[in-house]
Amino acid sequence: MKTINHEYSWRKSSCWLLITWGLVATVSVCGAQDLSQRSEEKTAPIPGSASLTGSGATNWHYGAYIDVGYIGNFNFPDNQLWRNRATAAHHNQLSPNMGLAYVRKDATDSSRWGMELGFQGGRDSEEFAFLVGERRVDGSDVLRHVHRANVSYLAPVGNGLTITAGLFNSLIGYESLYAKDNANYTRSWIADNTPYMMFGVNAQYPLNDTLTVTAFVVNSYYHLAHPNDLPSYGGRWIWKATPRLTLMQTLYGGPDQTDTSPEFWRLYGNHIVEWKGDDVTVAASFDIGTESIAAQPGRPRAFVMGGNMVVRWHITGPWSVILRPEFYWDRNGRWTGSEQFVKAITSTVEYTLPYKWTNTVVRVEHRYDDSTGVGGGFFKNGGTRPDVVGLAREQHLLLLGVLVSFDSP
User: Fold this and answer.
1) Which pTM was predicted?
2) pLDDT digits 0-9 by tens, 206-234
3) Residue 190: what are its φ and ψ, rounded to 5°?
4) Strand-strand pairing, 94-105 and 319-330
5) pLDDT score at 385
6) Contact 67, 403 (CB under 8 A)
7) Which end of the chain has the least Cβ crowding within 10 Å, N or C?
8) 8 Å CB contact between 309 and 295
9) Which of 169, 190, 161 is nearest to 46 (CA)?
């Protein structure tokens, strides 16, 4: 491992590198029922930020969530698993994918300290915080059950500077670990291979009514991975270009291998455009990442790229339909563990049943994935030999998900 001096010399040029990454562009059209609220785990201001509660409203919130689904996989894999995936990965069986309970206090002008604490369990909490083969922090089997654990302070600086420390929602990406906050039941490929949570410190500041910037220092790309003892860095901006159009970009850079030399740092960029209409929302995401792999002969440069578009149409009353086409290219297998190019399309029908402070969502969903490349494929029934798992190029899923939320006003 290189000495920490390398990290300090790299820090001087890291800002320049992140600005260079900002030249990566994303172009899309967007519009659904208020998807930014449904995806608040990813796209709205972090819990405990400068959003204020109305007069007479409490700053304290509490709630619980249960997610149970049955995913039918028409490949009927012997191991009942979705290859290379962390969420909704158990198939052809009734699966308790997530359960959580939380308490949160918002930071406001009148009460500047905030906090959030929550605990979770279920199959979606098993492998969401690691890349394949990464060294894990000690006690990760227990720590994966922590939903959030942070404190925040709204400092009386200019328009309000919110500082949050601890385990907080990821500042990368559009989709949440929790299906209730997303348009579709299953997550996209770029969502499953970017962090759902971060551990460290972030500072968020609204420059004006339309532009908010955030800087963060975190322990690693995935908060339960432990490749070394050095931190990683990043920043995010959110620009509300018009009342209906929002653009967001997050840039990340840090050492995610045992060799922490600058040449082996991971660089990652996430880009989002969202347009919200009265009944239609369209949101597009594009991600790109790279790093050279120190432990492999020739130190090859790994490269990953993916994108998707979520189109949500609120038809009438409790009914909505959602369509999400996507692609994902893991050239070296660094992110998924397999060298592959994936194309997928997901279609969802949703029925929502709110009652007082509870909300029940029933989703019926079909998903088709096609994986090509040297390491591509999905588990199927029967192998080439008793000790070799069979793979199929395509996979069809048909699922029923029931999501029940209990949230205080």
Assistant:
1) 0.86
2) 999 999 999 999 999 999 999 999 999 99
3) -70, -30
4) unpaired
5) 54
6) yes
7) C
8) no
9) 169
For residue 30, pLDDT over 50 is answered with: no
Q: Which residue do the tokens 């050279």 mark?
A: 292
Distance, in Å, from the CA atom of 13 to the CA atom of 363, rounded to the nearest integer, reads 47
Could you write out the three-class secondary structure of 171-230?
Answer: CCCCCCCCHHHCCCCCCCHHHHCCCCEEEEEEEEEECCCCEEEEEEEECCCCCCECCCCC
Cα-based torsion angle of the residue sequence 289, 294, 300, 302 in order, rounded to the nearest 10 degrees: -20
Q: What residues have CB less than 8 Å from 322, skipping those under 6 apart?
A: 32, 183, 184, 310, 311, 312, 313, 346, 347, 348, 350
For tokens 């998924």, name the residue: 336
271, 285 Cβ separation under 8 angstroms: yes
Residues 6+ apart with CB under 8 A from 280: 31, 32, 311, 312, 313, 314
Evaluated on CA atoms 363, 287, 23, 171, the torsion sign reads: positive
pLDDT of residue 372 exceeding 90: yes
Q: Which two tokens stand for residue 114?
A: 């905030």
Question: What sign does the CA torsion over 5, 289, 331, 370 have?
Answer: positive
What residues pair up with 310 in beta bridges, in sequence order? 283
